Structures are given as structure tokens and as C-alpha cells.
Amino acid sequence: MNKNEILKQKYFNILSELDESFLNEKHLYSKKVEGLSGLFLASEPENYWTAKNKIMIIGAETRDWNINTLQEYSLDHYLLTSIEKNKVFLKKMINEPRTKKISFHDFTRAVADKSGYEGLIYCNLFSFSWKEKSPIGSKYFKEIHDVSKKLLSAQLNYFQPDIVILATGLSSLKFRREIFSLDKCKDSIDYENEAISKNQLWQFNFDDKYTCYRIQHPSTRTGRKEAQNARNKLLELLPSK
Question: pTM score, two decimals?
Fold first, then answer.
């Protein structure tokens, strides 16, 4: 079994435990009609394992993510469709014109320009959105949270990135810490001597494996100037391609 098949099998094993109504829009009790997005699954870049810099960017959730399957539902086909959508979407975003706008994928493009695209992984803390927003307020949040935690942990263990950038925002802090627990965060570094608060940029080593950077979500409106300064500093710290 090649590496790509290993990732798909990990996804399949996790999603086999999830009620089909969360995925199959034709299910009698489909959650999509209530506002649940399609499932977001990270894909593996073609040259990931030979990439110079392996960087995982973790956002909060995708605002809207539709998985269109033309044939009769099956879990295997659904997850393959979701993985392919992620791959196509990320390539498209990386190739978008560079602007002075402030959005999540303006930041993604800046990371790719500095450190290379081949080793870039785009993940989310939550693998579903609810009514094109955070799923935290959804009545199905327990199920969303449980499967998202399993998926993100599997992605982290599978991809083994050199660097993890956490750009999830403050509202999801306690859920992020369920995976990146503080007791495994060591060698903390802040940049307050450069007028960048720890709330805006914090560097640490997680589990003796990953160099991590925590920043505000790139589209945050709170402290926008300070957040931009923190992102600029982070880009300086990232390795060149």
C-alpha cells in the first residue's frame, strides 16, 4: 500500500464511524438541508515527501464546502471526491494573483511564495462548517467536533510536517488545545521585544516533533495592524524555498 492509500484508509476508518446522514445529501435525514457543509479533507501534494519544507496551515473551518457526487453514494467515492476538491482548490488559490487584501488564502499564498508549494498542507480544525460559519453553535457540534478531532490528529500524524501554523482564532482556543495540549508545548518564544504581543504570534515546539506558530486568523478584524505585523514576522521566520 503506497502512502497516499494509507491516508485514504485512515480517513475511511474514521468516517466509517460517522452517521451517513452527515455525508450523504440524499439520505432521508441529511444534515445538509439543515445547513451542514460538505466534508473537508486535506489532500497530499504530488511531491510532498521530497519537498524541502513541509508546512501544515490549520484554519478554523471552511465557510462553504460542497461535495458533488454524480453517482450513488458510497463512503469511498465521497472521500475521494472531497480529497480531490481540496487538491484542486488549493492549487487554484496558490495561483491566484497576489493582492494587498487580507484573507486566509492571501496568507497561504504568502507562505507558498516564501517556503514553496510542494510541501504545503491546508487543514481545518473543524472539517465541517454550519450555515457557512463556525459549527460551534450547531446542535450537531459534538459529532462534528469528535470526527474533526480524529481527522486532524490523523493528518498531523500522517504528514509529519516540519512546521505547523495555527491560524484558528480565539473562539476555538479550547478545541485547539485538545490536540495541541499545553503540557506538550515547550521552548516557548515570543516576540514582544519587537512590539508583537504573544497573543499575535507565539512560537513553540510541540511534542518534541513540530515547530509551531500560533497567529490570529488572517482575516481577523480585531487588532488588524498588529496581526499583520505578526504575520510579516512569521513570514520572515519561515524557511526559504
Answer: 0.93
